[in-house]
Amino acid sequence: MPNKTVAGLLPNEWKGVLLKKISKIVRGSSPRPAGSPVYFNGDFLPWITVAEITSNESMFIYKTKTRLTKEGAKHTRITPPDTLMLSNSGATLGIPKISKIKSGANDGIAMIIDIKGAEKEYLYYHLLSKTEYLRRAVASGVGQPNLNTDLIGDLPLPLPPLSEQKKIAAILSTWDRAIEGTEKLLANSQQQKKALMQQLLTGKKRLPGFSGEWSTVAFREIGKCIRGVTYKPDNLDAPQSYVLLRANNIQNGKISYSDTIKVDSKIVKKEKILSNGDIFICMANGSKNLVGKSAYYSGEKPIETVGSFCSIFRTNKSSSPRFIFSLFESTFYRDKIEIILSGTSINNLKPSDIEGMYWFIPPLPEQKAIAAVLTTADEEITTLESDLSRLRQEKKALMQQLLTGKRRVRVN
């Protein structure tokens, strides 16, 4: 029969407690003034910040990028190895970590210490499962979200017997290892593609069977840059509408459909309707880093266009759309964009800026061959990204079941 507790209905062998009943919650402290060379950038004590805690998905912290001076160590809370920490400030609050080093921690971090009757790694996974809850628990409208120790201490905790806690943590750590391994494979594939692009797109490495001369051409010779649709609020959600893509729909060279709007088809000229092989470019944005970003359009939706702060680059028959898109993804394209935007406070490109860029490119057959190689690399990256997403979702679902007792584990 389920056991009714402060942590909800739990199996009979489990108990529900508040986190503060089995531990003590304290906050870190930061030397002041922040950044003072008297305290910071020393070589005496590792210094853990919110950025250190939230920089990756690993359970543990083994080293830090910065250290405090001996004087700085006198003005922080020093914690021993194997301390459970939780980020409690800013947009990334609610992320736990276990520090494996003696360190200082800043005031954006809470420490869960003096733990009794609970496994540290089990508590880590429980806190990880409550990240979104902890963020929602912060009052809306607060400029800098912040968790206090009382709110953390009042977190309900389903607590199975210690042997079951250990088994649950061991199972979830298996998923962590699979995620970490897939992350490494993904990083390697991305790095390999980057190296391939650097070699193939500059002619430093030629594919077998190709030896023809490359030529320098302006983008206007191989395609046309078409400015997107200008619209007004009363042009939206008309009876006959097209999906309109904006800069936020460009995600890592691909089109995201998580936040789109619809625009009246009557104001969209035929040439501004996306077609297979078009390259969708951000032309203006408050963030300079986003200007020039692009995505390849493969005809995902029936009828789409782009907004006025974006453009469509449409290649002609003398070039391979996939090859040209690879140029838009390259570091030397980014360098050209930085030169165009330097010295101006307006983060804005004109179609003539794109069309006026000069490139060293091979004949069409070699373009297609290079594009095929890079597309294969892209497909491998996409597969690994999908695997990583699936593993994370599986872990999240498993945490929800194991940490609430809805799914039990067998303990020898």
* Tally of DSSP β-strands: 24
Radius of gyration from the alpha-carbon trace, in angstroms: 27 Å
Number of helices: 12
Question: SS-based structural class?
Answer: alpha+beta
Instruction: Write down the overall mean pLDDT.
Output: 92
Write down the overall geometry. elongated
Helical coverage, percent range: 25-40%
Low-confidence stretches: none
Query: Looking across the biggest beta sheet, what order are the strands in?
Result: 4-12-9-10-6
Strand content: 15-25%
Largest sheet: 5 strands, mixed
Distance between the termini: 23 Å
Architecture blueprint of SSEs:
Elements: E1 3-5, E2 8-10, E3 15-18, H1 19-22, E4 24-27, E5 40-48, H2 50-54, E6 60-61, E7 67-68, H3 70-73, E8 77-79, E9 83-87, E10 96-99, E11 103-105, E12 109-113, H4 120-129, H5 131-137, H6 149-153, E13 156-159, H7 162-200, E14 215-218, H8 219-222, E15 223-227, E16 241-245, E17 250-251, E18 254-255, E19 261-264, E20 279-282, E21 294-296, E22 304-306, E23 310-315, H9 321-329, H10 331-341, H11 351-355, E24 358-361, H12 364-402
Helix pairs in contact: 7-12, 9-12
Q: What does this 3D model show about the protein?
A:
By secondary structure, the chain is α+β, with helices and mostly antiparallel strands. The protein contains 12 helices and 24 strands. The strands form 8 sheets. The protein has a 5-stranded mixed sheet. The model has no long low-confidence stretch (mean pLDDT 92).
